[in-house]
Amino acid sequence: MKTYDAIIVGAGHNGLTTAAFLAKAGLDVICLEKNDYIGGATVSREMYKDWLYSSCSYVCSLLRPEIYRALELHKYGLQVTPFGGSCQFMENGDYFGSYHDPEMAYREMARFSRHDADAYERFSADTMRQCRLVRDNLLRTAPDPTSFKPKDLMGLAELGMKFMDMGEDAMYETIRFWTMSVAEYLDQYFETDVIKTTKSGSGIIGTALGVYSPGTSYVLLHHYMGDVDGNVGTWGVARGGMGAIADSIAGAFQTYGGELRSEAGVDKIIVKNGRATGVALENGEEISARLVVSAIDVKQTFLDRIDKSDLPEAFYNRVANFKIRGSSGKVNIALDGMPTFPAIPKGSTLYHGDMHFIDSMERMERAFDDWKAGTWSKDPYIDMLIPTLTDPTMAPPGKHFMSCFVQYCPYQIDGRAWTEPEREAFGQTVIDQIANYSPDFKSLILHYEVRTPEDIENQIGITEGNIFHGELTMDQLFFNRPVPGYAQYRTPVSSLYMCGSSTHPGGGVMSAPGANAAREILADLNRPNTVPENFGDD
After folding, report:
1. Which of 68, 215, 244, 383 could form a disulfide with 240 if both were Cys (CB 3.0 to 4.6 A apart)?
2. DSSP alpha helix (H) spans, 45-101
3. What residues have CB less than 8 Å from 262, skipping those under 6 apart?
4. What local confidence, expressed as pLDDT, does residue 170 receive?
5. Contact present, 506 and 481 (Cβ < 8 Å)
């Protein structure tokens, strides 16, 4: 039986990234995917004839440009096009628009509050200061604060120096920032409810927390620190849907000689004498390798695919307590034409951006209250985008695809599985909210699919459908992710590594966990490093 150098469990974007960099270094690598398609949540699928749906993830910003260049993803067709601004619809018939153009952005804010328009520059500068601190560490392994290894000591010293360079006042503010709620953070700058609501959405997307929950200030930062073509904070659409990202990385992987197998779900990671030696597939086949890398989440890896007896009890218990709660749903819609939104001027660039239908912080928090009560939000926060306005290849000419990412949607209803009528009612709640602001919207719907966290878990394999593979809270970040002592992609099992979003620096389609894991693996094997370093911000 053949023995590979490495087996990658899961062909999501992180698994493919690790596989590509290992194969680029000359390793014999096989990447295994349980579905008949690759990409995990980074996928484009034809769910309705001639329409491509970005079924789960739907926008791109966090993908590290260093990885894009190192794997030459442009050769495999990956194009990311920025889209413009966002719009917050208001119950009184007005709207608040966010624009990339600084003068337009200022005028729009001043329409509601001159104070807020003047404060925005300070808000942007302070937030960008935090972004720079984090961005420098995305393509670096988190140093272990308990280690005396030179690499860890140097990493901690570097981090400390950057922290000190911020200055005394900024140091105090940074400590406060990482533990604040997004509502408290925004209150320091803005007075207008709809403006705060617009900014707060980035603090709760994909997160089982509300706008007044401590730690959501960092979640806002996580969504602000990406870039498209060097424009930090900008979001874009991948041409051909989000699956184009996974397809391009897979193309690079296969060019380097890697082997990719779909419909090859891993049932167990085989451990012998404390060392991972291969995997057993769901069909009973066994595949051997010198090392195994898991791209699936930490709970799926250690609670479901490894015998408890092969793990230290303390480690097992920490994994069991890792917070990875489902809070987001998705509704994807095929449209017969472009819906109208009477509140927005015809031809406005706001049509190309994401749209939201909640206009107050109180409504945002009440949406979270429904989730805490074990049901979906009856007045949800929806991040709605019509990507076909930027990328017309996803639907037939004159038709459109609409993506709706929804907060909040629980993994279970009152502690039990969803029923089909409840799933339909959740989808209808989303459609009704949009229809309140678009009179012809419902008449244009040709098809829609509803995905609850339970559906995402069943279809893709992410615990509770949590898009980040675990909450992005202070206790689960940096050298605490996924658990203290195991934040450097290694595990208590020899020759078993992690490379998914449960590891540093966390979730989002950035590929940084996969790249960082590959760098550590190559170092352990004394192989030349093929993984790029962070090339920093100007």
Report:
1. 244
2. 65-70
3. 11, 33, 35, 36, 37, 38
4. 83
5. yes
Amino acid letter, residue 12: G
Residue with tokens 């950035």: 510
**Cβ burial, residue 128 (10 Å; 0-12/13-18/19+):** middle
Looking at residue 363, its pLDDT comes to 97
- The residue ranges of DSSP E strands in 371-503, in sequence order, are 381-385, 400-407, 445-451, 496-498
Please say whether the beta carbons of 57 and 505 come within 8 A: no
Segments of the chain scoring below 70 in pLDDT: 535-538
Tokens 């935090």, residue located: 130
Burial class (CB in 10 A: 0-12, 13-18, 19+), 172: exposed
Contact predicate 211/244, CB 8 Å: no
- Segment 17-35, tens digit of pLDDT: 999 999 999 999 999 999 9
d(CA 335, CA 400): 5
| Residues 202 and 356: beta-carbon distance below 8 Å | no
Q: Which helix (H) or strand (E) holds 8?
A: strand 3-9
